[in-house]
Amino acid sequence: MKSKVLLIYTGGTIGMMADAKSGQLKPFDFKHLTEQIPELNKFDIELSSVSFEKPIDSSDMQPSVWVELAKVIERNYNKVDGFVILHGSDTMSFTASVLSFMLENLNKPVILTGSQLPIGTIRTDGKENLITAIEIAGAKEKGKAIITEVCIYFEYKLYRGNRTHKFNAEHFNAFQSANYPVLAEAGVYIKYNYSALRKGDTKKLKTHLVLHPEIAILKLFPGITKKVVTAILNTKDVKGVILETFGSGNASTEGWFINEIKGAIEKGIIVLNVTQCNAGAVVQGKYATSSELKKIGVISGNDITTEAAITKLMFLFGNSNNTKAIEKGLRTDLRGEITV
Ligand code: ASP
User: Fold this and answer.
1) Rounded to the nearest whole angstrom, what is the distance from the C-alpha of residue 237 to the centroid of ligand 1?
2) Measured between alpha carbons, how far is 214 from 209 in angstroms, rounded to an integer?
3) pLDDT (tens digit per residue) in 214-261
4) What is the pTM of this model?
5) Active site members
């Protein structure tokens, strides 16, 4: 039996064309994509596709679009064996992260891919990315899907989506997953790293469609002023703040700074400590410069990426108003996003 894969086109460079007048890259109609890749018709996979009515550059991504995407997956979940989402690379890690939280008990592959060069250009990276992503989304062993999680496939590598970060704006190799191994590498064969894959769930898919967007990031830098810190922590309606700290979770020990954070926590804001480094983890208490944060109730983000931290907070606040439950969720590995 042929595998069935649903291709969901949201936009991004992969489906863009240069505007004849301005030369600027703009999304074009999805039907041009299949025209550009006739190979898609040769697959031993039954392909179907849906396109967002108005394809977007992924910098315009919004939580409401994530909800739409999750709904498309939910509606088609029992009809196909896997999904490929064509998406701009700029915010792909955010979308992959949020979908991992929204799709509980996922038992099928959801593979996001895109490209750095439009599919119509001669040196495009889009063709290989798309063709291999489809192959992975349709891949089965003993009748079961090999991949049962939300992933990004880019430049010969398959990553756990909620572990990724776009680190390069011009190389084809644009993503990294510094704190988690690559799930598969494509060469002559697609080699899966079986021990790193999430085990499929036998429970029914549960789709979470409420996201709370009132989240802020407070990125520290030497010399940050009290005015800036106060403004961010007191932003109206903000419920969760990601404190992007130095190294293994360190921050200024100045009295005013600690007091501001402490005040926010006392008001009910959840403060999550995430490192500014691309690799490694927050270890609160390792240095004196993080002990105070631990004492006042800042939660350690461990080795989570900022992308996963933001979307995890949106998801947890969308599900609950209970501070203790949210804090517990943050400390728990829900979808393979942190090492515990
Ligand atoms: N700006 C584009 C986007 O994220 C870049 C890309 O597709 O790679 O939609």
Assistant:
1) 30
2) 16
3) 999 999 999 999 999 999 999 999 999 999 999 999 999 999 999 999
4) 0.95
5) 13
